[in-house]
Amino acid sequence: MAHLSDWLHARADWVQTHLVRHGAILFRGFEVRDAPAFEGVARTIDNDLKNKYLGTSPRDAITDYVFSASELPGYYPIPQHCEMTFTANPPRRIFFCCLLEPATGCGETPLVDFCAVYHDLDPSVRERFERGGVRIVRNYSGPRGGGTFDFFQLKRWDEMFQTTDHAAVEAQCRDEGFTPQWGPKDSLRLISTHPVTREHPISGEQVWHNHMQVFHLSAASGEYRRIYALRPTLRHWLVWQFTRVMVHTNRALRAADEQSMHCTYADGSEIPDADMEHLRDVIWRHLVINPWQRGDVVAIDNYAVAHGRLPYQGPRQIAVCWA
Fold it and tell me: Does an H or E element contain 100, and which?
């Protein structure tokens, strides 16, 4: 770890320049073996680490600033996204470290250049997205649970906000631009509207920078169709079919605002499935997949490059922190 920190200190300007130029840097062969060592490396690049997390994936704290990347089951796909784009101040950088590599051919953390995605979208589709904006709806059960089972519901609102106090939750919602709506059995609905792009603060480029491809009801089935095409196993085909059934069932039984997670245009009108499929096609066209090796550290410009997770079986431990 001292070797990598020394290397980074000696090349601080180079690292900052290339992180903006390329969007992500992989550091390999430096023997970063645990969370404290990883935190030290991340601080060498950006000392302003944060630990407020309002994302949807369940995470376990390892240190004050290092978390498990996701505690979602290994079969659950995580579509490509820039971290916490739906908050008032998304992280500038995000860092990943491989503490235990997964088996060969699974569990990678793909990266995608979201500047390239923006420019590669069909102009008419991109114009509809930019004109329409995105409205995100998330429904959370309360501290005592009690809601019906939903494959797409990932955690409770008290787990996300780290409090059971309604007033404290509402204060955080005001800070982040969320509209909270309390419901039966202490459930909570969060509604927020966002532009679909962001101008990169340094390069000035337009970047696809929203969670539409994550929160849309069709996300899981859309991902698994492509995962099966990439790795055609019986397991992937079965999960793809299961998610297709779940999407059709949820659409039939629940209105848009009652889904665990969903998004529409800002005015509440539905985004055409064909446009969502086109978006996924473009994202997957730019997917970069590298297998993890233990000790790897990846630094990412969160205003330019997205990350996700491919399904896996067996042991895997990836840590994350952000600034």
Answer: strand 93-100
The tokens for 207 are 């970047």
User: Which tens digits make up the pLDDT trace of 1-18?
Assistant: 558 988 898 898 999 999
Helices (H), the chain: 2-10, 12-22, 35-45, 114-120, 123-132, 157-161, 166-176, 212-215, 219-230, 234-253, 273-285
CA–CA dist 80, 19 (Å, integer): 19
pLDDT digits (tens, 9 = 90+) for 64-93: 999 999 999 999 999 999 999 999 999 999
User: Residue 221 and residue 214: Cα distance in Å, rounded?
Assistant: 11
What per-residue confidence (pLDDT) applies to 319? Answer: 99
**Strand pairing partners for 300?**
24, 94
User: How many Cβ atoms are within 10 Å of 163's Cβ, its own excluded?
Assistant: 14
Question: Which 3 state secondary structure label does DSSP give 242?
Answer: helix
Cβ atoms of 113 and 23 closer than 8 Å = yes
CB burial of 25-40 (b: ≥16 within 10 Å; e: otherwise) equals bebeebebeebebbbe
Closest CA to 76 of 312, 299, 264, 306: 312
The interaxial angle of helices 219-230 and 273-285, nearest 10 deg, is 40
Low-confidence ranges of the chain (pLDDT < 50): none
Delineate the domains of the chain, giving CATH numbers in brackets.
1-323 (3.60.130.10)
> Would you say 38 and 95 are in contact if contact means Cβ atoms under 8 Å apart?
yes
CA gap 38, 35 in Å, rounded: 5
The residues near 199 (Cβ < 8 Å, ≥ 6 apart) are 205, 206, 207
Whole-model pTM above 0.90? yes
Residue 317 and residue 292: Cα distance in Å, rounded?
10
Residue 49 · residue 64 · CB < 8 Å: no
Confidence at residue 34, expressed as pLDDT on a 0 to 100 scale: 96
Sign of the torsion formed by the C-alpha atoms of 161, 164, 168 and 174: positive
Q: Report residue 271 as tokens.
A: 């985004």
